[in-house]
Amino acid sequence: MIVVTNIAFALFGLAAVMAMVRLVSGPSLADRMVALDTLLFVGAAALGTYIVRTGETAFVPVIVVVALVAFIGTLVVARAIEQQAAE
User: Fold this and answer.
1) How do residues 57-66 score in pLDDT, each as one tens digit?
2) Total structural domains in the chain?
3) The CATH number of the domain where 41 resides is what?
4) CA–CA separation, 16 vs 10, rounded Å?
5) Number of helices (H) and strands (E), helices first, in the chain?
6) Which of 32, 62, 70, 85 would staple 26 via disulfide (CB 3.0–4.6 Å)?
7) Where in the sequence is the domain holding 35, given as residue range(s)?
8) Are 21 and 34 in contact (CB under 8 A)?
């Protein structure tokens, strides 16, 4: 189990680095929002893997809050992009 979670953490780290590159270099606001959303969900998945590895369930509400913040943030940015396009 330790080896599998170590591999998962390495892949989460790689995904986070790639999302950060896209966040910095994204040509549009939508690209940056998708990268930020990806970064938040990678963090939530890494936290979930940590919970599975240690058995400590204190961080489960944090995962729920991160997922809700990512979802609401995506909605707000999508609405802003839509209004910008209508003008």
Assistant:
1) 999 999 999 9
2) 1
3) 1.10.287
4) 10
5) 3, 0
6) 32
7) 2-86
8) no
